[in-house]
Amino acid sequence: xxxxxxxxxxxxxxxxxxxxxxxxxxxxxxxxxxxxxxxxxxxxxxxxxxxxxxxxxxxxxxxxxxxxxxxxxxxxxxxxxxxxxxxxxxxxxxxxxxxxxxxxxxxxxxxxxxxxxxxxxxxxxxxxxxxxxxxxxxxxxxxxxxxxxxxxxxxxxxxxxxxxxxxxxxxxxxxxxxxxxxxxxxxxxxxxxxxxxxxxxxxxxxxxxxxxxxxxxxxxxxxxxxxxxxxxxxxxxxxxxxxxxxxxxxxxxxxxxxxxxxxxxxxxxxxxxxxxxxxxxxxxxxxxxxxxxxxxxxxxxxxxxxxxxxxxxxxxxxxxxxxxxxxxxxxxxxxxxxxxxxxxxxxxxxxxxxxxxxxxxxxxxxxxxxxxxxxxxxxxxxxxxxxxxxxxxxxxxxxxxxxxxxxxxxx
Length: 411
Ligand code: NIG
Ligand code: FE
Hints:
Helix content: 25-40%
Bound molecules: N-(iminomethyl)-L-glutamic acid, fe (iii) ion
Largest sheet: 8 strands, mixed
Structural class: alpha/beta
Distance between the termini: 21 Å
């Protein structure tokens, strides 16, 4: 049967568990973040791309008409994972830099010496649009096989008009949610960060704003300072983009107060965040996006996840997939790190890679939960208990991925 003729209903039956985090109109905070509903011996019925029912097998009624069936024995259904922070559009690799860092060089030293991000900029500028499409497709498929059904991806390895716009088109056309990271680094042809921003805001923003949903800036020494970040973000906001920031990765330069002032959707990284900023974030609507793989790979302190959650902040988790600080597409591995390095429970980690990440990408009403009315995007874990998502460290824990009510991939 061709997919055009396939019945629009899909029944996944005899599941060990069907699991969803709690839901809310806004991101989950405090005790709500860890709340998980588990149905044992369950089924999930999808209709026309949405979840129609989640229930007990013993209560499954007779279904009239065509329904495709999938055997869920020994598997757990949980919402498709949402990766709200990736840099999936780039060419080349940085395996050589990885070795230099393994031998003791620091990420910031390599960046200051023109390596790091700028070496990926050189490779990406030379790649051509078709190569960028192929790169995003390849990375998207890696993510899908790790259970990611929705991904955001940033430009930021072009830093010229042509390559930034080509990156945003590649991300959009390959199914990602594009973010214009026009302020990622100062490219070599510009004398200063201010001169680069003059160019980017005048020449790139007008079209970038038509392609992207959000804008992002790297607020860090050696990249953009607070005033430059503010100027960039205000211009992007005025052009209709939602706002994100890379902040407090190496140094605390006021990213959280700026994110709160500008009502950004998120501030991401937070490895260097201190107590006062934890409290400021907790009292705001800005989501703190934690990226433990980058902290692990660069040997940095982990972000203060426990303090943030306990103070009432909304946190999400993401891979930060990129060729430098986090060449890792696996959100299951991120949840393992959350439970072993960040002091979060499996339920908190699940909420942070589903509901809360969905809010960061502006889709909290449609994705991130396995509940009637939500998009039928979910994963089947090869496990009798949903906590294997985090417990099976680095394992091939995802058995199958369903998107829009259709089986998209099975191991
Ligand atoms: O989020 N910190 C800035 N940007 C990326 C890394 C990009 C790279 O190293 O290529 C990050 O870690
Ligand atoms: Fe990043």
